[in-house]
Amino acid sequence: MTFRVLFPRLLLLFALVCAALPAAAQTNPDFDQQNAGWQNTVRQLYVKLSARNLSDDDYNGLRTQLAAVVDQAQAAADAANDALGKIKQVSDALGPPPAEGAPPESADVTQQRQQLAEALSKFNGQVRQAEAIKTQAQLLQQTADAARVDQFRRDLLTVAPATFDPRTWLPIPDQAGYLATRLLLPFQDQLGPGWDGVGEIARRILFAAVVLGIGWLARRWLLRRFGRRPAESVPSLRRRAAAALVHTVAHGVLPAMMTLAVAVVCAGWLGDRPASYVAMIALGVLAWGIVAYFVASAAISAALTPDDPSWRLVDLTDASARTLCRRLRAAAVVWTVAGVTLAMADGRILMQNELRSLLVAAALAAGALALLSLLPGSLWGYRADLEALPEGEPADDQRAAARPSGRWPRARLLAAILTVAVLVAGVIGYQKLALYITYLLAAAIGIGAAVLVLRSVMQEAIGRFMTQPVGRMARVRHSLFPNDRGLWVFETGAALCTDIVLGLAALVALAPVLGLSGTDLAAIGTAVLDGATIGGVRIAPLNILGAVAAFTLGIIATRFLQRRLDARFIEKLQIDRGLKNSIRTGIGYLGGLIVAIFAVGLLGLDLSNLALIASALSVGIGFGLQNIVQNFVAGLILLVERPVKVGDWVVVGGAEGVVRRISVRATEIQTFQRSSVIVPNGNLISSQVVNWTHKDKNGRVDIPVSVAASADVEQAREILLALAKEDKRVSAFPAPVVAFRSFGTATLDLELRCHISDVDNFAGVGTDLRFAIWKAFREGGLAFQPIAADISLPQAVQVLATAVRERDGTRGTAQGDAPEDSGEEPRKPSHAA
Description:
By secondary structure, the chain is of the alpha+beta class. 67% of the residues lie in helices and 7% in strands.
C-alpha cells in the first residue's frame, strides 16, 4: 500500500479519534495525563511526517517513538482489562438486581452496584481510548514505512548527468580547477601554523612514534604466539583461520598505523582553520583508503599463502593461488582509488553535479572492471579438481590452473551480471542505483566469504567431535550418543543449526546495506517470531522453536540421566536384570512425560482443550484404538508386575527366545536363530506364556536313554550318575537321579534327570552329557536299543533274514574263515538289537 493511499486514511482516522476523545472524558488523572501525552506525541509525529523528505535517522526515530506509544497504550489497555475482569467478578458475586415486585435490596448494596457500574464505564472508556491511540500509532507507523520506501525508491531512481552527454564535459575544467584550488588553499597560506603549531606537531610525532613502537612489539608477539609454524605440516582449518587472522593483523595493522600517524601529523600541520576544511576531509579519506588497502593486501596474502600451501584457507592449486594473489592485490589498488573517489564525491566536499557524476562514473567503472577480471573460472583451479584428473592427462599446476572450475558457477554468473548492471547504470546516470548494487555486492562477497570460512570451521569441529577416538570429547560423545543413529541425528541437527545461525547472522550483517535499520530488524523479527492467529489458534514460530528445542534437550538429558544412573547406580544394585530394566524404562517414561508437558506449555496451548481431545480419543478407542490402548496398558503392567522381563527365556506361541526389549506397544523377543519376533504386549498378558526364568534361572535337564533288555541296568545307572556328577555345571542339590521309566518289548527305558543353576546352559549341558553317555556306554559294552517300529509281515521276514545273514557272517569272521574272493570287501558288523 503506497503513501498516497495510506495518507488520506490516516488523516480521516486522526480526525475521527480527535472528535471522539472529548466525548469520553476520564476521571482517572494518571490515565488522562498519559492519554494527553500520547495524543500530543502522535500529533507531533503526524505533522513531522507530513513534511516528507525525512532522513533515515528521522524515520528511525519516528518509528521508535510510535512503537513506544503502542507499547504504553497496550499496557494501559491490559491494565484496564484486568480491572474490568475483577469488577465483573465482584458484580457477578452481587448477582442481578431484584426484579419487579421482589423485596428491595439494601441501600449499601445499591450504592455498591452503582459504583461498580461507574467503574465499568470508566475502565471501558480507558480500554477504548487506549485501543484507539494504539490503532492510530500503528497506522502512522505503516504510513511512515510506506513514505520511507517511496522516498528510497525515488532516491535510487534519481538521474545524474550522463557521462556520454557532451554537455556534462563542458564545465569539467572549471569545476576541477575550483576543486584543486580548494584543496591547495592551506598550502598557499603564507602565515603557516606558527611556532605553537610546530610544538603541536612535535607532540603528535612523539605520540605516533610511541604508538608505532607498541604496535611493533605487539606484532612480534602475535606472530610468535599465534602465527604459522613450519613444524605443523597439516594444520586444521581452525588453526589456519586463526593464523590468517593473526597475519592480517600483524602485517596490515602496522602499515595502517603508520599511515594514520602520518595523517595525524599532517592534520596538525594543516591546523583547524576554515581554509583547511576541504584538505582535511580529503586527507582523512585518503588515509582511511590507504589503511583499507594495507589491511586488504595483508588479508589476501594470509588467506591464499602462495608460498605455503599447507596454511592456505582455500584449497587452490599453487598456480591459481599465485595468479589470484597478484590480481587481487591489483584489484585492491583499483578499489582503494575508487573508494576514495566515491567518498570524496558523497557530498561532504562541495563540488558541482557534473564533476561529481564524472568521478562517480569513473570510480564505478574501474571497480566493476577490476571485479570482472576476477570472475573467470580458469583462475579458480582447485587441488581436488587436479586430483580428479583422469590418468594419462597432464596434471601439472599450469593445466590445473587453466582448467575451468565447476565450482560456484551460478554465483560467479550472478556477480558478473550485477557488475555489468553497475557499469551500465553508472554510465547512463543512475548512479545511486549503481552505488546501491555495488555496496550490496561488495558486502555480500565479504560476508559470504566470512560465513563460508566459519561454516567450514564449525563443520571441522563437529567432525572432530564425531571421530575423536579417546579423551574427554570421546567420553562425552559416548555418554550422549551411544549408537550410530544418535550420532547421525546429532551431526545432521548440528549442521542444520549451524547453517541457520550463520544464515541469520549474514542477513543481519547485510541489513544495513539493504537499508534496514536496527528498528526495522527488530520489527521484522518480532513479527516473524510472534506469528499470526489463524482460525483462533496462534501460530508463533518462537514458541514452536522453543518447544522443539526444549523437547529435544529434555529427551537428550533424560537419556543421559538414564545412562548415568544405569552405569553408576542401577548396575550396582543386587537385583535381577529385569527389575533394572523396569527402573530404567520408568525413568525414561517419566522424563519423557515431564518434557512433553513442558513443551506443550511452551507452545502456549490451552490445556483446558484436553477435555475435547480426551472425548475424541474415547470415541476413537471405541471404534479402532482398542488394541493400541490394550497394548499400552499391558506394557505398563509388564513393567510393574514383571511376569515377563528383559533377559527371560520365554516361549510364546511358536516363538522361543530371550526377551530383549519391552516397549510401550510391543515386546521384542530374540530367538536362538538370531531373529527378532515382535509380540504385542496384550498377547503376553492375555495368553499362556512359558517363562523358563521367571523366578530364578534354575532348570532341569532330562535325557531319556533306552538300552537293550539284556543289558545291565545297574551299570547303566551308575554310569549316568557318574557322568552327571563329573559335570561342574550340574547342581549337587538337588542331586541328579536316574528314573526307570518303563519296560519296553525289547528295551529298558531310563531317564537321567539333573538340575542346573543357569538355564542358559540347558542346551550345552544336554549335548555334552549325551556325547559322554554315548562314549561311556560304548566302552562299557552297553548297546543302545532303538525304539521298535510297527512293520508289516513281509518287512519283518526281510529284516530277520538280513539279521541271520549278518550273524552268520560275523561268526565266520570270528572263526578265521576268510570270505570268498568275490571282489568285494567284507561287510562290517552292525550292532544287533
